[in-house]
Amino acid sequence: MLKAKRMQKLTLVCSQARLADVVRTLHSLGAVHIRKHKKDELDIGEPFPEAEQTSSLLNRTESLIAQLAAPRKDYQKLRRNLAEDEAEVARIEQAHQDKQQKISLLEAERAEIRKLRDVLERIAPLGLHVEQLSGYGSLAVFVGTLKKELASQKVHAITKDSALMQKENILALFMRKGKEEQIAKLLQSHGFQQIDLSALAGKKGSPSELQRSAAQQLEDVEKRMALARKYITFMGEKHAKFLLSLREHLAEALEKAEAPLQFAKSDFAYLVTGFAPKEKISLIREQLEKATRNSIHLMISEPGKHDNVPIELDNPRGAKPFEFFLDLYALPRYQEIDPSLFMALTFPLFFGIILGDFGYGAVCLLLFLWLRSRFPKAKALMNIFIYSSLGSIVFGFAFGEFFGYEELFGYAIPRLLSRVNQIDLLMGFAVAVGVVHVNWGVLAGFANELRSHGFVHAANAKLSWIVLEAGVALLALSLTGILSLHWGLGAALLALAVIMLYKGEGIPGLVEIPGIFSNILSYLRLMAVGMASVMLAVVVNQFAGEFAAGGGAMIAAGVLVFVIGHTINIALGILGGGLHSLRLEYVEFFTKFYKGGGERFKPFGAKG
Amino acid sequence: MAADIGTGLIAIGAGLAISATAIAAAIAEKAIGSATVGAMAEKEELFGKGLILTVIPETIVIFGLVIAYLIIQMATVQ
Fold first, then answer.
1. Is B2 contained in some domain?
2. Which of A225, A388, A544, A593 is the most exposed, fewest CB within 10 Å of its CB?
3. pTM, to two decimals
4. Min CA distance, B44 vs chain A (Å)?
């Protein structure tokens, strides 16, 4: 709570012969975050020899899974033998390849048949058998399409030994060989385009007969292709279990095989550095010593000031969801305060003040409960909003608001404060919340500085802000005559604060002096954004009321306006309330103490 | 509230306080927001920092609203 989990530093030295045992044990423990070694006088370790084979097999498996579109299945226990796995993968690959090849052959065949079908379709109007169109010794044949009709006299003018057929825009011209060039020129001037008859080679009979048989063949080829495709899907289903399990197993094996890349290596020994949670250290030591029969040297120490200790957040259950906001921002450093719990206390409060309406709160609560069951992945965020909805309900009662109404059935709802009528009071309340929250942040900053730089610096850099606020407040109160004090007291405090700040944070600290007041005044948004939402609700209600007063069908219209208006207002309220509350946390609160920049604790061998 | 010229001027003043600050904040946020989205496309972890930087100018509007409210109060005092 308030601090990341306590870690200890492990330094482990082992011989090359023991390395495999060490890696296996560390992996199965899944509790040590290994610090990657950077090359210095010690070299980087080498991966185990099986790494290359494992990695290539993993690639092959992954590509098979992608190609077979293997569905998700339960995982199975594997024979832990790389060679056997490889043979099995090769067998599946071969089968898949064969089928693929068959499919591409069938595709080629299909293309051919389609071409034949097209040619037949085009020459069909001529009414000639296909064998009549080619295979002559002394005749030249032109078959093709024409753009404009060709007068037979023009052909006869070139050669008398010719026969011309024109049907629709298809032309067939038979002529004695010899004057093809002139004929070709003539045809060209009529927009002639030759039809490629090569697909008809060796075919006999009428086009319509051939068309029928081509259609038959096409159907047959497509059936065979579908069958082959179905077989591939079937293979995917059949081998999914094996392939997916293999992928998982190989990924794990590869992680182990490549682990030495993160270690330091001398001629004979390996050096492993890492961090582990304090409570797991004894288990880690015991397991490592057992696995290596006491032939390693393991040193446990407290992390030093300059160690970049990995962070595992450690919060009570209620504050856990708010770690999500740290993921969005930055993880705390090891020595820093973890503000998840602070946010758990204040975020729903801010949200509640902004969207303080127990009708809206109840709607939000139901909405987010439903969303949480619908989207388990966004559970943390939904839990945050469930807390926030409770905040809305609580403040809804405090403000006595129900869907913007301040009275129900003619009775005023009992309330502590009316947001519609007591704006001054609400402003004061918002600023008071600001003073508390900002100083809370300053005190947290004081605690952080105390731990890292000692009391004097912490007091100068952080407590000075509180002195500053007190000075300004005193000065203002005595100058306005509310307090009968000499104004010099406030001024003295102010001067003290300025000196402390200069010592603690230097010139930048002085520059930021006006900042703290604008930070505090920024909490006025709790009033402002909330009031905007109330006013919108009131307007919707008035609108709906006007409609409903019309009676009859207008009542339905009134209900519609009411529902749509409030839906929009709730959506705006959640967005505005959420973002403004988050902003107050991030900008006004965090900047007083939070630096962040910690690295997440990722133990070697842990899943996920 | 009598609808004399003074009241009208006060209303205009309040309106100016809100609208000018809102426009100012919008201009500032526009520049920061587009830069942030660009940065996030490169590095998604920047969301938190980007959000903070984007919403910083927004405080101006809140101040504008408060000033507008104070101006309107002036009207009721008179």
1. no
2. A225
3. 0.75
4. 9
